[in-house]
Amino acid sequence: MDAVKLQEQAGQRQELFIALYKKVFPAVAKYVARCGGSFDEAKDVFQDALLSYYEKTAETGLSIHNSDSAYIYGTARFLWIKRYKQAAQSSFLDESLEANTPTELASVPDENKLLHFLATAGKRCMDLLRSFYYDKLPMTEVAQTFGFSGVRSATVQKYKCIEKVRETVKQQALTYEDFLK
User: Fold this and answer.
1) Domains of the chain
2) Quick count: other Cβ atoms within 10 Å of Cβ 178?
3) Which backbone phi and psi does 5 adopt, to 5 degrees?
4) pLDDT value, residue 141
5) What percentage of the chain exceeds 70 in pLDDT?
6) Is the pLDDT of residue 105 over 50?
């Protein structure tokens, strides 16, 4: 290829990246912030997702069946969840290594306080959350048990139940320490 074509392709690629950044980054930043991440973490996750998108489409010639924006957003969410789990796991290990005294080991959440806030979501939500998290029922069975039209409906309802509890905790400005015995 001649230099003009390469320069033209680079310009098109740059325009595409700018358009995708303007279109998708605000949603990624909002998601990461909602999950407790910082703006810099959102930028890192977005850039990794954009790089993944570029590698998949340009180098392998893969065609994205959904929209480019949806692919990048989904990849960013996946990368954030992966990063969040790794950070939580390493901080848990660090904390458990530091906890040498029995009093530190005894600081576990108070079940009654937790149940109280779960109950604020309502009996049906409590039953649904218990079925999924405690009884470990698959979502197909949860959907059948609660009369949902499908797995997607059950998943959405589970999310809404969790959001009810989060909203209650948020309104009362509670922290993790408020749930300790």
Assistant:
1) 3-98 (no CATH), 108-179 (1.10.10)
2) 13
3) -65, -40
4) 92
5) 73
6) no
Q: In the 8-state DSSP scheme, what is residue 121? A: T
Distance (Å, whole) CA 156 – CA 72: 22
Dihedral Cα 144, 150, 156, 159, nearest 10 deg = 30
φ/ψ of 109, rounded to 5, equals -60, 145
The CA distances from residue 5 to 1, 8, 10, 15, in Å, are 6, 5, 9, 15
CB contact set of 155 (below 8 Å; sequence gap of 6+):
139
pLDDT, tens digit, for every residue of 122-152?
A: 888 888 888 888 888 898 999 999 999 998 9
DSSP 62: P
Q: Who contacts 39 (Cβ-Cβ below 8 Å, separation ≥6)?
A: 29, 33
Give the span between the Cα atoms of 21 and 41, in whole angstroms. 15
| pLDDT digit string, tens, across residues 49-86 | 888 888 877 766 665 556 778 888 888 888 888 887 77
Residue 101 amino acid letter: T
